[in-house]
């Protein structure tokens, strides 16, 4: 049996080489072995692979079709792993509160926030992943409808980041600030930006999001 680390290295390579079949094979091998840490496999393998491709894209060494191909390999693996993760976690997704997560209006990227959604679910949050390119008023409504304790918006482009600022203003106007924590993330987003617009949490990646959401919830408890 391969170790978690060995599987993670193979998963990263599969995503970076856009290999859907390898990605599926690694995922199936992982879920068949109860000793494999599936969360570590996602963060150190699949997620690390897509992040590397993202860096290469930023350096103009790969292009949009490569990102899409890498995302296809990533999704193929996660589609197999996620149900098993949820099964192992039991009803974990009911305990820590409701969280709304999405890509902000104008932003069609979904890979990063989908990984965050999976990780938060595994950590014990009840996650409402409402999709990508979501109008700000619909995000506000989802927070109200689901009595959310936190909301995460992802922006992968500087042009859509401004929506996060408008969203903070709308949350204040609707009286939701203070009741519902706001989290911002995405490649161009920084702690400085979060501070500037008044967001409660900035998360750099999925593991960071889980750690900060969990800490914030225990602080409020």
Write the layout of secondary structure elements.
Elements: H1 4-16, H2 20-31, H3 38-58, H4 64-89, E1 98-103, H5 111-123, E2 126-129, H6 136-145, E3 150-154, H7 158-173, E4 181-185, H8 191-197, E5 201-202, H9 206-220
Could you characterize the architecture of this molecule?
The chain has 221 residues and is α/β, with parallel strands linked by helices. It has two domains: 4-89, Methyltransferase, Methionine Synthase (B12-binding Domains), Chain A, domain 1; 92-220, Rossmann fold, CATH 3.40.50.280. Helix content is 60%, strand content 10%. The protein contains nine helices and five strands, in the order ααααβαβαβαβαβα. A five-stranded parallel sheet has the order 2-1-3-4-5, sandwiched between helices. Helix 7 (158-173) links the parallel strand 3 and strand 4. Helix 1 runs antiparallel to helix 2, helix 3 (38-58) runs antiparallel to helix 4 (64-89) and helix 5 packs across helix 9. The chain is globular. The model has no long low-confidence stretch (mean pLDDT 91).
Label this structure with key terms.
single chain; alpha/beta; Rossmann fold; 2 domains; 9 helices; 60% helix
Number of structurally distinct domains: 2
Strand fraction equals 5-15%
Q: Give the termini separation.
A: 42 Å
Largest sheet: 5 strands, parallel
Provide a brief overview of the structure.
With 221 residues, the chain is of the alpha/beta class.
């Amino acid at each position: 049996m391969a170790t978690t680390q060995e599987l993670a290295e193979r998963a990263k390579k599969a995503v970076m080489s856009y290999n859907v079949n390898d990605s599926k094979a690694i995922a199936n091998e992982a879920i068949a072995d109860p000793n494999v840490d599936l969360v570590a496999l996602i963060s150190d393998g699949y997620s690390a692979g897509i992040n590397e491709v993202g860096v290469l894209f930023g350096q103009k060494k790969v292009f949009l079709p490569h990102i899409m191909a890498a995302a296809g390999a990533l999704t193929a693996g996660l589609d197999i792993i996620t149900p098993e993760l949820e099964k192992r976690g039991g009803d974990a997704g009911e305990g820590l509160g409701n969280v709304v997560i999405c890509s902000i209006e104008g932003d069609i990227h979904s890979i990063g926030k989908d990984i965050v959604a999976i990780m938060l679910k595994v950590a014990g949050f009840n996650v409402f992943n409402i999709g990508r390119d979501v109008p700000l008023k619909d995000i506000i409504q989802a927070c109200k409808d689901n009595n959310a304790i936190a909301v995460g918006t992802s922006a992968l482009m500087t042009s859509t980041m401004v929506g996060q600022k408008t969203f903070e203003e709308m949350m204040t106007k609707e009286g939701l600030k203070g009741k519902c924590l706001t989290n911002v993330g995405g490649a161009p987003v920084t702690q400085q930006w979060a501070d500037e617009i008044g967001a409660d949490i900035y998360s750099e990646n999925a593991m960071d999001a889980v750690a900060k959401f969990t800490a914030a919830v225990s602080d409020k408890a």
